[in-house]
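2024-03-11 09:14:02 INFO queue: dequeued item Emp24/gp25L/p24 family/GOLD-domain-containing protein, len=209
2024-03-11 09:14:02 INFO validating residues
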Amino acid sequence: MKLSTITCALLGLASEVAATALTYKLVANEKACFFATTKKANEKIAFYFAVQSGGSFDIDYEVTGPDGNVIMDGQKERQGDFVFTGKQIGDYKFCFNNEMSTFADKFVDFELAVEEEARVTIPSKQGSSPEQTSALEESLFKISMQLSTVTRNQKYFRTRENRNFSTVRSTEKRIVNFSLIQILLVIAMGALQVFIVRFFFQGARKGYV
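2024-03-11 09:14:37 INFO prediction written
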């Protein structure tokens, strides 16, 4: 009976969520927009993004409501995690702008979620007091918040891992290019030394003759 009560509580606390998670390659001088639709007023909209690789790991973003007004925007941001209330019904536009880059392509990991906060009262057990039911509700909400924190930490560490890996690959390419240039310089210096020595010997022979 206790297990079924907790299960019903979890189902009641779980909100109706429509979410989309994508990784998009934003080429240089490109602006890409994505949409999330709300069917009711005052729905919660969650917006998360992180630049995984490319350039300085920054991007411009802009969020526009159904009426065309800008809700939030930012320039040269590496990542963001926002939740706001969609007061109007309709399509909310989320745009990423890479027009500041002339040649660097960027991979952007983002997630859009529309959540209807439907909070259902936990069914109380016969003989249980309202304080016990309230304590159960608080425990469930704490668990929900902790799960949300764990999810955000996982996203953060994933972003750091991808950025560090991109930095390692960039450093590796630079080391290889520097090594090739150094080898070519050594070969050129050796050929120049041989040419100079031969030039001196040929000049000495002519003077001796």
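2024-03-11 09:14:37 INFO annotate: The helical segments are 2-13, 130-208.
2024-03-11 09:14:38 INFO item closed
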